[in-house]
Here is the input.
Amino acid sequence: MLTHFKGCLIDYYHTGSPFPSSGIFARAMTAALRQPRSPMRILEVGPGAGPMTAQIVRHLCEGDEWDVVEINPVFVRKVEDNFLAAAREHYPTATIRMHEGPIQTVPLEPGYDVIISSLPMNNFEPEIVTEILTRFHELLKPNGELFFYEYAWIRPIAGLISKPANRQRLRSIGQILRTLDGTPGVSKKIVPFNIPPAVKRSVTSSALASVCNGNGKDNGSTHRQ
Here is the structure.
């Protein structure tokens, strides 16, 4: 909890909520790993202090390939020290790597079965959201699946108290996500046992093409992640 709060103070833009995800929500986000399966390629993006990471460690299998991408150096050190180092010893045939940097530019080999993202999409400019979703599409296998989330009702509530420029930014993000939600292969589930309550999205690789092909794109500012 303290590590997450410290990381949020240092870099709220890439962290989002000052509260880490609950264990219940982390289990919901990593449910795909609990199914009977063969070795998988797993990508975790924006782990923060590691609530999703802890669940991935519990359900890792020998032979898995697991890459973790985190931009905040505070979280990079904590996730490496608290989770990844021990996981490498416990699963000697698994490949586990930490990458520091933004997901758009970290060099990764495409072909992931599962991507689990905790990036705070509503903090970003609309074109950054599109860039990130496009990057996820590039990295997923054709039959792969992306899991990401946002906090429930955050855009309508923030829109009521925001300045006009921020309201427009949030509306543009909402349009991108509505385009995505209207595509076959996307499902949503509200998980109330989290602070704040969160909406989990499950998105197939084919569904991501709805934003990768330009639908819902916005010509907002050029602020970069």
